[in-house]
Amino acid sequence: MAADQPKRGEGGESSLTVVLALVVNLGIAVMKAVAGVITGSAALLAEAAHSVADTFTEGLLLTALRRSARPADRRHPFGYGKERYFWSLMAAVSIFASGAVFAFVEGGRTLAGEGQEQVRPVVGYVVLALAFAMELVSWTQAVRQTRREARAENRSVLRYLRVSDDPTVKTVLLEDSAALVGLVLAFAGLGLHDLTGSAVWDGIASLAIGVLLVVVAYTLGRTNKGLLIGRQADPRLVRETYAWLARQPEVEAVVDLLTMVTGTDRVLLCARLDFDDSLGVAALERTCVRLAGELRAEFAELDEIFLEPVPRADPHLRARVLARYGQITRRRT
């Protein structure tokens, strides 16, 4: 990534996307809850819980954006970037606990014959239509930002979502997409109940909404788990960094290259290099300083850089590299 490319995580667009989603979901949650009470629809009440969970999620994402932007200090020398992943993981838990569980409970109660009799379904239809229109506003903003960022990295949207180290926009996009699908399910359950007079359809729709929320929560939880544990940087960045180091005249071989995402657009790099044996100690020190500076200028995501001079034939180092990758890095020819 070029040094002059703007960083996604530090701009204001992610905050705009999250705030817009929060406002929209809060309004929708109130409408759905009122309509659910009036109509007695389990699917509408499940959707109200869905929107409440989404509102909590946006609040957690705003916390993530604010806390992860704090600079490094003595206690956290690599910064607070991973806080974004922790709070995003909590958002996934919120979606499951506040949304999916309630939807399953309401669906189960309705199928067991404990639900309320459905009345005034027209209120439900109107609220669902309004909620769909409002949800489209938030979803459109999330899609617009995702496409822009994917285009900037010359990737497809799906590929960008898989490798992105910014969970905020991905979370909003997935939950807004799930919200639109959930509204369609709720509309189907409400309509089939109205047409057939059977509450079974309403209960089935509520259970389907619960399953949908479980899938979204699991997907987001798995993504943030990998980032919290310490995921390798974007493979493209790893390849380009390796190639850049291998081209330097002082470097005989790139023996090992370790990267870890420490926050959105923040990567820790440790490179073990076999330098030209003719370099003296002072020249080697100057070379390491120069290479680190030029790496930061070339790749804006590189935050902390450690360059370690090593002999490529060391058996212990070779064994560690073999254990990690299955093959030793070949000497440059």
TrEMBL record:
Keywords: Membrane, Transmembrane, Transmembrane helix, Transport. Its main location: membrane. GO terms for cellular component: membrane. It comes from the Bacteria. It is a multi-pass membrane protein. One of its GO terms (biological process) is zinc ion transport. This is Cation diffusion facilitator family transporter. It comes from Streptoalloteichus hindustanus. GO terms for molecular function: monoatomic cation transmembrane transporter activity. Residues 18-227 form the Cation efflux protein transmembrane domain. It is found in: Membrane. The chain crosses the membrane at residues 16-38, 85-105, 125-143, 172-193, 199-221.
